[in-house]
UniProtKB/TrEMBL annotation:
GO MF, one example: oxidoreductase activity, acting on the CH-OH group of donors, NAD or NADP as acceptor
Gene3D superfamilies: NAD(P)-binding Rossmann-like Domain
Transmembrane segments: none
Oxidoreductase as UniProt keyword: yes
Keyword match Coiled coil: no
Organism listed in the record: Kribbella rubisoli
Keywords recorded for this protein, A-Z: Oxidoreductase
Name of a matching Pfam family: adh_short_C2
Family recorded in the similarity comment: Belongs to the short-chain dehydrogenases/reductases (SDR) family.
Alphabetized PANTHER family for the sequence: 2-DEHYDRO-3-DEOXY-D-GLUCONATE 5-DEHYDROGENASE, SHORT-CHAIN DEHYDROGENASES/REDUCTASES FAMILY MEMBER
Protein name stated in the entry: 2-deoxy-D-gluconate 3-dehydrogenase
Amino acid sequence: MNPFDLTGRLAVVTGAKRGIGFAVAEALAAAGADIIGVSATLDPASSAIGDRVRELGRDFSGHRVDFADRDQVTDFAEALDGRQVDILVNNAGTIRRAPAAEHPLDWFDEVLEVDLTSAFVLSQILGRRMLQAEYGRIVFTASLLSFQGGINVPGYAAAKSGALGLVRALSNEWAGRGVTVNGIAPGYIATDNTQALRDDPDRARAILERIPAGRWGTAEDIAGAAVYLASDAARYVTGTVLPVDGGWLAR
Ligand SMILES: NC(=O)c1ccc[n+]([C@@H]2O[C@H](COP(=O)([O-])OP(=O)(O)OC[C@H]3O[C@@H](n4cnc5c(N)ncnc54)[C@H](OP(=O)(O)O)[C@@H]3O)[C@@H](O)[C@H]2O)c1
């Protein structure tokens, strides 16, 4: 018995089109899971992540949903109601950078809606079926900014700190009913999300100098933690956020 085996499991991965979500969907499929991938611009008929999952011998269905639109998120989740989703990876996320004193309120609202509220909506609707089945794994992509404040990203820091709260709140209610709820806090990962930081030589250097591992992370660095938290190997792990950060938080 391989405790990391996900054969026969069905996983919803949000933000699966690129970056961390792509790597997580790929790794879950490699471990045996079928994948429902969703993102703002994913083409249901044709996507690189769909091709990759099928190459790995697993089933893939793709959905285009704008997480800034709560009705779209609700409709998507309710349309899945006929299927037993075992694993939910709340990974889709956006970021808006502007100093707090000038931060546009509509940016703040947008980031909260996409990064936090949509994850709660999905967790609530898919979680109900997990509770009925007495089995589920929910994994949030949290952030270092679940623990720290960041600079110029007040909405993002609030949303990711909120994700830590949701992990704990849902875990408290659901852990005794077969549904574990955890998060992963990626460090500084080279994806589109951090392009602006890497384009700023001073910020890029300052960040790199502070990472004990001596390099930025890759999306693939995050994938193993997601497989672990989605698997039976982590059956007694719940209510926690696992940093995968090259040592950043220990410093
Ligand atoms: N990169 C890092 O250093 C880092 C660190 C900590 C946490 N994170 C978190 O990790 C998660 C993935 O980020 P990433 O680094 O992989 O960034 P990314 O490459 O920018 O990917 C973000 C994904 O989220 C989806 N998304 C964004 N806005 C959306 C919306 N309104 N509706 C639906 N989907 C939306 C995107 O969809 P489309 O592809 O269709 O546009 C994309 O698939 C995010 O929650 C992010 O906050 C990243």
